[in-house]
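Homework help thread (please don't just give me the answer)

Our assignment gives two proteins as sequence + structure token strings and asks us to describe the second one. The first is just a warm-up. Here they are:
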Amino acid sequence: MRHGKKINHLGRTSTHRKAMLSNMASSLILHKRISTTLAKAKALRTFVEPLITRSKDDSTHNRRMVFSYLQNKEAVSELFREISKKISERPGGYTRILKTGTRLGDNADMCIIELVDYNLTMIAGKEAAKAKPTRRRRTAGGKKKEETPAEVAGKATGEEEVKEPKPKKTAKKAVVEEVKESEEIVDKTEETVAPEEPGEEKPEVKEE
């Protein structure tokens, strides 16, 4: 039974495990990204993130404490000089684990563990998603509305033609306008036909 055992020993003794995690942490700090198994990456994350938090306060005591874990002067200087500036505003979660499939030999789950602030492709994708796309008007058929030469010239000069919004027609207004138009047509037809005077009578034509 492994009740209460939260540490993954990774099938190694304590000294072997500490040395392995120290080497992996140094490689991650120097190269910003390494490929390993999923179990090792999860163990490495709990090992290296407290060290990255210590790097926010650049003091002799913190440098000595980090060096006691890493045993690598180059990794310590890289952590306190370069990485600490990148993660100064981040409250935690300095690493990211990306699964890459399984290993061919023993079918172990493989992954990539990297520093979040050094993945430029993901950072660029987030910035592009934040920028809202421009809204374009479309016609009833779903095709884009063709721009007039005046609109093209206005965009080139930075000036856009201001169009007054047309009032929307409701169903009642449309019916009223149709009735008015029909009344106007009837009035015009009555004007063209001259009414006969009541006193005048047409002469009768006799047939011979």
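The one we have to describe:
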Amino acid sequence: MLVLHFDPLPMKPFTTNGNCVRPLLRGMVLIAVCCFTHGAYAGPPFVTDDPEPVAYRHWEYYSSIQLTHDQGGWSGTVPTMEVNYGAVPNLQLHLQVSAAFSAPTGDSTQFGFGDTELGIKYRFVQETEFLPQIATFPVLELPTGSRSLGFASRELDAFLPIWLQKSFGKWTTYGGGGYWINPGAGNRNWWLFGWLLQRQITEHFAVGAEIFHETPQEQGGSSDTLINVGGIWDLSERYHLLFSAGHTIQGPSSTIAYSGIQITWGP
């Protein structure tokens, strides 16, 4: 789950002068980077996460590209790198870093290092015939990103979620939500909710669709709701391809996309 925050850099007032429009466009796209990647792809290739931790003494590695496009231009990460480790039964350690970019319409592309994410997923209820499995996955966002480009938070942020999952034959459904503690001038604490339905089409290929909602993340901001569809293709027991794409159905119009590879291994 990549999370980037943006505290807007000082801008000149908006006028029809092109030199003033460019900083405004840059700011709009940097804000889009924040809104798109804040909590995005918690359970690759989807935004909604699942409660299942990595198996004990096993590893997961993800390398991915995440993109968003709206009226301000393009933004995202190239790449995001995530590592998960099953430290003890039912408990997973999580580390994520990224290289972020923004490409405002009519302006130059900016690249920079993003914030660093640390987390622990702990499953405290096992799935049974009647009960779903349940886990919590708190994360901390360390402000390690490039501040000069607006790719970093100036505060330590935290996400406190609960996730549930239940399987029925070839069908799996999971979801939940949590609360983002988002300090800083002009920021608001906010909620993220999501739910997903996934089906195993063949032995090596699964597809899923999700809907997720985010409340406003800054003073005067707006909420948004998106629908996202994607798939997971198991090339082997170790290598897996992941992809998804989605669009808003409520809130400012934007399109998101994800493409990545997952590598798994263990004893």
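TA reply:
I won't write it for you, but here's a hint about the kind of observation we're looking for: Helices lie at 18-37.
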